Amino acid sequence: MIILKYRVNTALKEQTIQVSKKIIKALESSFVKSGTVVANDKKNENNSMYYVTTLELQTKHEIIDVDMAKEILKTLCNKYAWGFSSVHAGKFNASINSVDINIHFIHAEHDNKQKTLNCSFYINSVSKIDATNKVKTIIKHVSLSFNLLGVSEYFKIDGCFIVDVEIPLRINSLDVIRDVLTRFFSDWRLTGLEAFSEGCVLDDNITSLSVWFKEAKL
């Protein structure tokens, strides 16, 4: 399922319905099997009338990765920016410079304002110092700069510590984020993936657009 929310600059509710039909028709041929308007709210801002419409789209196939999401966006807009709630990777083991690394999972969030990835490594270790050194070994091995934010014990798993680090990004881009994260591990899942655009190629009256995908592979 995809949630699509957009603003239409019009005072006519019927026009928003026509726009929604146009969007569903454009997506039906390849991606969407049905679509329903679940909200259509009239707004008045600075004496300007507009509607914010929410479409719920049922897809023909599960959107399993970012590349599939990009194909859908091509139909809707020329330019867009990405956002997501969090990204996570599951358990993996490695040996780096004769150091055995056992990761339970990694959780990361993107700080758009600071242009950083804030990563939490849930790592098997005997102490805070040992856990910190292991994470430093991992990050240095993939040639990334970072700032250590803190380390704490994770009481839900015996011998597990959480090491929090901040990784600076060149630019706020999903491709850059993917390049950084896949240096550690190839299989990442994005939660709350969303794309934002200031317009839509299907209708000039749409002045903002967001497309929400529940989860997708990075």
Q: How would you describe this protein?
A:
By secondary structure, this protein is α+β, with helices and mostly antiparallel strands. It folds into two domains: 100 residues, Alpha-Beta Plaits, CATH 3.30.70; 78 residues, Alpha-Beta Plaits, CATH 3.30.70. It is 22% helix and 48% strand. It is built from four helices and twelve strands; from the N terminus they run E-H-E-E-H-E-E-E-E-E-H-E-E-H-E-E. The chain starts with a strand and ends with a strand. The mean pLDDT is 90.
Mean pLDDT: 90
Q: Return Rg in Å.
A: 21 Å
Largest sheet: 12 strands, antiparallel
DSSP strand content:
over 45%
The top level CATH class name of the largest domain: Alpha Beta
Gross morphology is elongated
Q: Write down the oligomeric state.
A: single chain
CATH topology assignment of the largest domain: Alpha-Beta Plaits
Number of helices: 4
Question: How would you summarize this macromolecular structure in one to three sentences?
Answer:
The chain has 218 residues and is α+β, with helices and mostly antiparallel strands. It has helices spanning 13-28, 66-76, 128-141, 174-181; strands at residues 2-8, 32-45, 48-59, 81-83, 86-89, 92-96, 99-111, 116-124, 147-153, 160-168, 189-197, 206-217.
